[in-house]
């Protein structure tokens, strides 16, 4: 089971979880097919944009400015939201956010809620909290509904059920909707989901949404989606509760012009999201008549203190880095042990959860840089991965067991060797002799200890019989003679 941000349990080590995922051929095929399709569509849509790089830079600048003045824009959003009939609540952590939501639902007499665009609610495990309080949460995003019905975990930021194919989805629907004759054609699956959800949209009177953006200038909330369920969730209920991470605020309505060009192209390879919903406060006789916003911190403001880690908060949850990542594309998202998977999850989860809860995630990367190249807001994920790895090493070196760890001892020993050329040359000679035990057909194989992990999956050439230094010394000697 995946670990959620805000809890104290520890995520499973990524290498162990990834090994399990790699053994699941169906999962790997599903992930590869889906990510390849999205990547291809994204490439076409980006190529159409002559100002794509300028848009990326503008988005990065907006986010950097907002995060540097986050307190100002959050209070501006609160003031403008409440001016038009909304009510803003502040939640320091997951427990506080869930408590606020439960108290509001009980205040309005609800026993069920419909939900849309609620990755942040997954972060705080809101469904678990609601069910414990006797409240039934109903996911209405198709992929989230599939995950919920299958008692599964999301594996992608944009397409949570990306690891499932239509045959597996049909089986879930047959079981949970009591439709034994349901076929696995996309048309029948869509019709079944539509009938199931339409009943809930018409019946349930309280909705819970997430948010893609919160506009400080107007107090508005923006949700973008592709199915129309979002439009139903934010207009049909009598009461709407919106959970928003504090980093989702942007200064002005005009800033949406930039992000609404970048987000759909990066997320799903579309020029524009089919549904873009914006709502501001309460309008008598139209839509929800009670509107509440829960602004969630849950470790975000702590990230502001570190300039390198602060950049992570610029993420707009497009998922482009997942689709580009060679590690994610082989393992899928479940191996990351967090609601946020892929490269962005590898840096966001350790920061929100504390490094102790997801220590292996900063190492779940080849540092190839593909994530940075596709990020629409130019988050330098590789640099942050290196930064977090450094934090882990420094924290380990403060402990007795960390100092005695084989890797730390080996690196300290290597540092002393590299500090002196005589030690370095002596180590080379010793290594040339020792490698004879492991050299097979011009490759080093089955090296002992940690080095064995390298040669198990990669080619490694033997150390040459003559180093550059040896060649240079020989050349100098010949020139003098």
Structure, explained:
This protein is an alpha/beta fold and 481 residues long. The protein is built from 24 helices and 12 strands. The strands form 3 sheets. It has a 6-stranded parallel beta sheet, with helices on both faces. Strands 8-5-6-9 form a 4-stranded mixed beta sheet. A two-stranded antiparallel sheet has the order 11-12. Helix 17 (342-353) packs across helix 19 (381-396). The longest helix is centred in the N-terminal third of the chain and has 23 residues, at 25-47. Mean pLDDT is 92; it is low at 1-8.
**Helicity range:** 40-55%
Structural category is alpha/beta
Strand order of the largest sheet: 1-10-7-4-2-3
Judging from the principal axes of the Cα atoms, what is the shape?
A: elongated
Radius of gyration: 26 Å
Question: What characterizes the major β-sheet?
Answer: 6 strands, parallel
Instruction: Figure out the total of helices.
Output: 24
- CA distance, first residue to last residue: 72 Å
Strand content: 5-15%
Number of strands: 12
The overall pLDDT average reads 92
Low-confidence stretches: 1-8
